[in-house]
Amino acid sequence: MKKGGWFDRAVPALVLAAGVAACAVNPVTGKRQFTLVSEAQEIELGREYDRQIVAEMGLHPDTALQAYVQELGMRLARNSERPHLPWTFRVVDDPVVNAFALPGGFIYITRGILAHLNSEAELAAVMGHEIGHVTAQHGVNQMSRAMLAQLGLGAASIFSETVARYSDVANAAMGLLFLKYGRDDERQSDDLGLRYMRAAGYDPREMADVFEMLARVSAASGGGRTPEWLSTHPNPENRYERITAQVQALPQDFGNAVVGRDEYLHRLNGLVYGDDPRQGFFRGSEFLHPELRFRLRFPDGWKTANQRQAVLAGSPSEDAVIQLTLSDAESADAAARAFASQDGIRATAPSPTRINGLRAATVAFSAATQNGATVEGGAAFIEYDGRVYQLLGYAAAGRWSAYSATVSRVAESFAPLTDPAILNVQPMRIEIVRLDRAMTIEEFARAYPGPVDAERLALINGVEPGTRLEAGRLVKRVTGSRPPTS
């Protein structure tokens, strides 16, 4: 299970900061701007969010790769307008093609985007762009604007503060609010990223290749899971053309500029590619977790998501939520009593039961929302393998009766996982191969068979289908197999 919701405490922190509105000079433009967040508060907010991301999103376990990204990031940040910030660069354990920045100098690169980059200079371009968001204070400006609407955001949530702690639905909207930038901000960050990578000695032509990769990933998605960058950033084709024009206008003295292709690729050897099934995966509507050794079936047709510390399902009508998390309690009964005793919750007395032979307890509850309405739901607490699982289902009052039986069936589907094929499943990984002879990417796919096709291999290697690869070239392949589908 995985979990998001990095910004669940953003509103209180920002409200506290609201009393210090002032004019300040933007470090990049030199112009005065209205801000509600001082630099000290910006750094503290970044530190608080960083702790949440590390705890909830998870870091890639390769310490050598983490150190490499931190060192490269510092090399770029030293050439920025704000070298004094507590710059922190992390690789998060997420397969999505993404990179993002938080105020105060906290930058995150997903392993998903690392798998699609093909040189250190390309990585420098991505990181330089994210550094630009921080140096130009785009996040701080976004926060200052958003603070004017905080009361409206609070009233718009259908969940009380108590219930929201068990749901990422409201938090997801808050997170998107703070991560989205305007197109002018994005263009400025592109320009700053180009400046920073050049100052650090990298070949600026590699930045355009990043935008080309993003466009290809988007096209390959077929309208499915597109790179997160594309949900908030300008069209990658337009960015490719714009940066290419800027690079062509520069003095063409790139002979000593660093690309760092082979050095970078060697660092990817063994990197997990795609979703890690060890952290749980869906097979249709059934959720299977090899590490925690349990299975659970959600209703057909519901939208599902596996986050690091929670598994979520939303009804087709978007009026009901089911969420599975781990409880800190020592027993199912203790977890049920702790849940029922919370302020703002009206709950029945815990009812002991058994689910597939496992000790469990259930409660029905209701809670007042911030706009005066009510949500109703049910919770099941299940003891298994030394842990207590909490399954929470709820809907707006008046709708719960339509979902209570469905949530009960989901809870009753919780069971130990015993299938050896599932228990032993392993993730796909990147393997770096040095070609002993020239071949096309299609010939490479046949020579080194794996779970992805030649078209996907062309994409992650930054080449077009049909490209002939020279002897001695380092090439990415994908090893392993996809999780069983039946």
How would you sum up this structure, described in words?
The chain is α+β, with helices and mostly antiparallel strands and 486 residues long. Helices cover 39% and strands 23% of the residues. The strands form 6 sheets. Strands 10, 11, 12, 13, 14, 15, 16 and 17 form an 8-stranded antiparallel beta sheet that branches. The chain has a 4-stranded antiparallel beta sheet with strand order 7-8-9-18.
Structural class: alpha+beta
How much beta, percentage-wise? 15-25%
Give the % helix. 25-40%
End-to-end distance: 21 Å
Computed CA radius of gyration, to the nearest angstrom: 24 Å
Shape: globular
Q: Which consecutive residue ranges, at least 5 long each, have pLDDT under 50?
A: 2-21, 148-179
* Domains, number: 3
Question: Main beta sheet, described?
Answer: 8 strands, antiparallel
- Provide mean pLDDT, rounded: 85
Beta strands, count: 22
Count of helical regions: 19
Short description:
This protein is of the alpha+beta class and 486 residues long.
Keywords:
alpha+beta; four-stranded antiparallel β-sheet; 486 residues; disordered N terminus; eight-stranded antiparallel β-sheet; 3 domains; 23% strand; single chain; Protein Transport Mog1p, Chain A
Question: Helices and strands in order, then pairings?
Answer:
Blueprint: H1 10-17, E1 22-25, E2 32-35, H2 39-56, H3 63-77, E3 88-92, E4 99-102, E5 106-110, H4 111-116, H5 120-135, H6 138-147, H7 150-156, H8 161-164, H9 169-179, H10 183-199, H11 205-221, H12 229-232, H13 236-248, H14 261-268, E6 272-273, E7 281-283, E8 286-289, E9 294-297, E10 303-307, E11 310-314, E12 320-327, H15 332-340, E13 345-347, E14 351-355, E15 358-368, E16 374-384, E17 387-396, H16 404-412, E18 415-416, H17 420-423, E19 428-434, E20 439-440, H18 441-447, H19 454-460, E21 468-469, E22 474-479
Parallel strand pairs: 3-5
Antiparallel strand pairs: 1-2, 4-5, 6-19, 7-8, 8-9, 9-18, 10-11, 11-12, 12-17, 13-15, 14-15, 15-16, 16-17, 19-22, 20-21
Helix pairs in contact: 3-5, 5-10, 5-11, 11-13, 18-19
